[in-house]
Design goal:
Helices cover 35% and strands 28% of the residues. The chain contains eleven helices and 14 strands. The strands form three sheets. The protein has a six-stranded mixed sheet, with helices on both faces. It is globular, with a radius of gyration of 23 Å. The structure holds adenosine-5'-diphosphate and magnesium ion.
């Protein structure tokens, strides 16, 4: 079965006065995708989400969701999408249930349907136990869960989540992702922004935007093989190295090493492709004063975004 194109972003430009928030951005998202939209703060991520939710007028290009134009057919778009904004937009003085009732009715749900959907979504997200609690007193993770529940009440086909896990503890983050993966398994399309690389790795396609321009688009696998990340004459390796963090700058000066970073006690380096493993092991073992086993590795998403950003900043 061929997946359908759900989101079309076609040469979108959006300015606010003299600020260009999006410049000629184009890509598509297919049904069932978990599309990760990444980039530094101020790069235009939230702006694009607001464009796609039918909340902003464009200065150029066009955008559509499920075949409906985001500028001209905003009502059709809004009925079919869920939007979880970057900042907690619920009413802290209302209870969990009251917030769901309010949002459900804003989405046009009638009484009986609203009750059924609150039961269904509330029990799925385990929110019913907090029905009578004031929303403002929930922890960060539960606030986000309630925010997600409110965006799901009208059973949207496409869900936009703007940094849904920022400021949320790791356990709550993992739980929220379990829910997101279930939504994707139901065939919903998810469009998500995040600064967490582990979350980026869970998305099946990624876009990287850097100060209004889309710099890269593809699967994590495709991005790690971009020439700017892994030049053709190089490869990535990893090895356990004593005091790796303290000795990174020393490691970076060793022969055949182009660049690298450290994860815990692991040195993660880009080296000349034509250098044999034994030669590398000899160099690193001598440097460490202890035997080193070199393993093949691949670029991380962090390597990808650092390389893309540096390339852009150097004006290449
Ligand atoms: P991100 O979500 O990637 O952090 P945003 O989309 O929020 O970025 O912002 C992109 C740029 O547009 C920033 O320079 C921001 O200050 C500007 N911007 C966003 N919304 C508005 C607005 N309503 N009025 C003026 N400038 C805005
Ligand atoms: Mg934002």
């Amino acid at each position: 079965m061929c997946p359908e194109t759900t989101i079309v972003v076609d040469n979108v430009t959006k300015t606010f006065g003299h600020i260009t928030a999006l410049k000629d951005v184009s890509f598509t998202v297919q049904q069932g995708d978990i599309f990760g939209f990444l980039g530094p703060n101020g790069s235009g991520k939230s702006t694009l989400i607001r464009v796609l939710c039918g909340m902003l007028k464009l200065n150029g290009g066009r955008a559509s969701v499920l075949g409906f134009d985001c500028e001209r057919e905003t009502e059709q778009v809004k009925r079919r999408i869920g939007y979880m904004p970057q900042r907690f937009a619920l009413y802290p003085d209302l209870t969990v249930r009251e917030n769901m009732e309010l949002y459900g009715s804003l989405y046009g749900l009638k009484r009986d349907e609203l009750r059924t959907r609150i039961e269904k979504v509330g029990s799925w997200l385990e929110l019913l136990q907090y029905s009578r609690q004031l929303s403002g007193t929930l922890s960060g993770g539960w606030k986000q869960r309630l925010s997600l529940a409110c965006s799901l009440l009208h059973d949207p086909q496409v869900i936009f989540l703007d940094e849904p896990t920022s400021g949320v503890d790791p356990v709550a983050r993992a739980e929220l992702w379990t829910i997101l993966l279930e939504l994707a398994a139901q065939g919903k399309t998810l469009f998500i922004t995040t600064h967490y690389m582990d979350e980026a790795g869970r998305c099946n396609r990624l876009g990287y935007v850097y100060f209004s321009r889309l710099l890269a688009l593809g699967t994590a696998e495709e991005l790690t093989h971009l020439p700017v990340v892994t030049p053709p004459d190089t490869r990535w390796i990893e090895f356990v190295y004593p005091s790796a963090a303290q000795e990174l700058s020393f490691l970076l000066k060793l022969p055949h090493v182009r660049k690298g970073t450290v994860f815990g006690n692991n040195a993660h380096l880009l080296v000349d492709a034509n250098t044999e493993r034994v030669e590398l092991e000899h160099i690193f073992s001598k440097a460490a004063g202890t035997p080193i086993n070199v393993m093949d590795a691949r670029a991380t998403l962090e390597d990808v975004f650092v390389a893309l950003t540096k390339e852009r900043d150097s004006g290449v």
